[in-house]
Specification:
By secondary structure, this protein is mainly alpha-helical. It has seven helices and no strands.
Length: 147
C-alpha cells in the first residue's frame, strides 16, 4: 500500500501498476509453493500445530486440504485490499469484504448442514468466498488499470 500510494500520489499510475504487478508475482510464487506443500504434505504441516492423535486431527486435515485451494486467491485478495488502500480508496475494500463475508455466511449453513458436509463444508464455504474476493479484486484492479 505505501509504494502504491507513493507512486499514485505522484500521478504515476504506471508506477503503481508495476508495484501491484510485483506483489502479484510474489503472491503467485509463494502461493504456489504454499499450496504445493499443503497438498503434498498436509499431515506433516498439521502435525506442527496439532498432534496426530488429537480428536480434531482428521477434521483439521480435511479442512486444511480444502482451504489450500484458496491460498493464492486469498493472497490476491490481500494485495487488492492493499492496492485500493494505496489509492486512498477504503470504500472498495469494504464492499468486497462485505460481499465476500456475506457469501461465506450464506454458504456455511448450506454446506455444513443442508449438504451434510460438516467441517469440510465450512472449509469449502470459506475457500469459495476467498476465491470470489480474489477474482473480484483482480477485475477491479484491471478496471482501475492497476494491471
Amino acid at each position: 500500500a505505501p509504494l502504491v500510494a507513493k507512486t499514485a500520489g505522484a500521478g504515476d499510475i504506471d508506477g503503481a501498476s508495476k508495484r501491484v504487478a510485483e506483489a502479484l508475482f510474489l503472491a503467485n510464487v509463494l502461493g504456489a509453493v504454499g499450496t504445493a506443500l499443503l497438498v503434498l504434505r498436509p499431515s506433516t504441516l498439521l502435525n506442527i500445530v496439532l498432534p496426530s492423535t488429537a480428536p480434531a486431527a482428521p477434521y483439521a486435515l480435511r479442512y486444511l486440504q480444502l482451504r489450500s485451494i484458496s491460498l493464492i486467491p486469498a493472497l490476491l485478495s490481500s494485495i487488492g485490499f492493499a492496492a485500493f488502500r494505496g489509492l486512498l480508496d477504503n470504500i472498495t475494500p469494504l464492499k468486497v469484504s462485505l460481499a465476500s463475508n456475506l457469501l461465506n455466511l450464506i454458504l456455511d449453513p448450506i454446506l455444513i448442514f443442508t449438504a451434510h458436509m460438516g467441517v469440510a463444508g465450512a472449509a469449502l464455504a470459506t475457500a469459495v468466498s476467498e476465491i470470489f474476493s480474489g477474482v473480484t479484486y483482480m477485475c477491479l484492479m484491471m478496471r482501475k488499470r492497476l494491471l
